């Protein structure tokens, strides 16, 4: 039996997720703010963390965007192979949901033509990543991505001889060179393996993990913790004011790659780590 899902339902879900993501930081992020405040040694950094906590409270209670940069609409879709979409085109439904959400939620529209720089006016087209999965349901994850942190992200093709130590050094160097630009405390997504473009998607998808959730592979979990510790010894701190809370977490995802390649991507997320999801 093939289950049917209407594009009208998809539009509504995408619309609501876009607004919700921009208004309400996840509980995992808020808890990470509190923990960072408790262990922070720098007086200036502590004051910044207090302001970030207060800003999140105001956004949630007053239903206002947590940041003036409401991000490009990045949407991850997992489509059950036993379902059928009716009532129109899926991509257009997603984009219509984005239009309605950014208009109705009074969210800044940041999408523009890359050459003329003319704003598209409605924050579309969305950046859509689709995956076919078993089952008859659809999982939609809306992750607005701000320009400041995205600009600090990089992909490189390391020599295989660089190994895991080369990967670690590349990530830490990227965070160090980024300084205060991505509005720390950041979350760092790392993708290793696959191909040039696949490593970047892995790094982006890594950012969807809740803070504090380690990679299930013990070896990779240990690498995440080591990189996080090295980053927090850089002394950049919240918004660049110094301290030991440069990043809240580091997430690493890997895939097999070509024997002659070692693709590595670092996708940095600002402290406003926004993502909401729904299953229909």
How would you explain this protein's 3D organization?
With 280 residues, the chain is an alpha/beta fold. It folds into two domains: 3-21 and 66-144, no CATH class; 147-272. It is 40% helix and 23% strand. It is built from eight helices and ten strands. The chain has helices at residues 7-23, 27-39, 43-62, 90-104, 147-150, 163-178, 196-206, 218-232; strands spanning 3-6, 74-80, 83-86, 127-133, 138-142, 154-158, 186-194, 247-257, 262-269, 276-279. The strands form three sheets. A four-stranded mixed β-sheet has the order 4-2-5-10. Strands 6-9-7-8 form a four-stranded mixed β-sheet. Helix 1 (7-23) runs parallel beside helix 4 (90-104) and helix 6 packs parallel to helix 8. The longest helix is centred in the N-terminal third of the chain and has 20 residues, at 43-62. It is globular and about 55 Å long. The model has no long low-confidence stretch (mean pLDDT 97).
Continuous helix count: 8
Strand arrangement in the largest pleated sheet: 4-2-5-10
Radius of gyration: 19 Å
Helical residue percent band? 25-40%
Overall pLDDT metric: 97
Uncertain segments: none
Measured distance between first and last alpha carbons: 16 Å
Characterize the biggest β-sheet. 4 strands, mixed
* SSE run: EHHHEEHEEHEHEHHEEE
Tell the overall outline: globular
The share of residues in extended strands comes to: 15-25%
């Amino acid at each position: 039996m093939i289950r049917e899902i209407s594009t009208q339902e998809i539009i509504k879900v995408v619309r609501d997720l876009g607004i919700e993501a921009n208004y309400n930081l996840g509980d995992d992020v808020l808890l990470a703010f509190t923990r960072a405040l408790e262990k922070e040694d720098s007086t200036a950094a502590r004051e910044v963390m207090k302001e970030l906590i207060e800003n999140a409270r105001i956004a949630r209670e007053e239903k206002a965007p947590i940041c003036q940069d409401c991000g490009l609409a990045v949407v991850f879709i997992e489509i059950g192979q036993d379902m059928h979409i009716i009532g129109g085109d899926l991509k257009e439904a997603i984009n219509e949901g984005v239009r309605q959400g950014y208009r109705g939620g009074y969210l800044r529209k940041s999408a523009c033509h890359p050459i003329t720089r003319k704003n598209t006016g409605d924050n579309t087209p969305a950046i859509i990543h689709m995956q076919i999965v078993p089952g008859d349901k659809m999982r939609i994850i809306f992750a607005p991505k701000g320009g400041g942190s995205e600009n600090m992200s990089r992909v490189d093709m390391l020599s295989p001889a660089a190994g895991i130590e080369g990967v670690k050094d590349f990530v830490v160097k990227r965070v160090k060179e980024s300084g205060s630009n991505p509005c720390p405390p950041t979350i760092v997504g790392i993708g290793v393996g696959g191909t040039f473009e696949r490593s970047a998607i892995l790094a982006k998808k890594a950012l969807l993990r809740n803070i504090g959730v380690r990679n299930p592979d013990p070896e990779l979990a240990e690498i995440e913790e080591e990189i996080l510790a090295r980053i927090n010894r850089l002394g950049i701190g919240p918004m660049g004011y110094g301290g030991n809370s440069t990043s809240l977490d580091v997430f690493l995802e890997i895939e097999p790659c070509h024997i002659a390649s070692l693709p590595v991507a670092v996708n940095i997320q600002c402290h406003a780590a926004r993502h909401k999801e729904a299953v229909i």
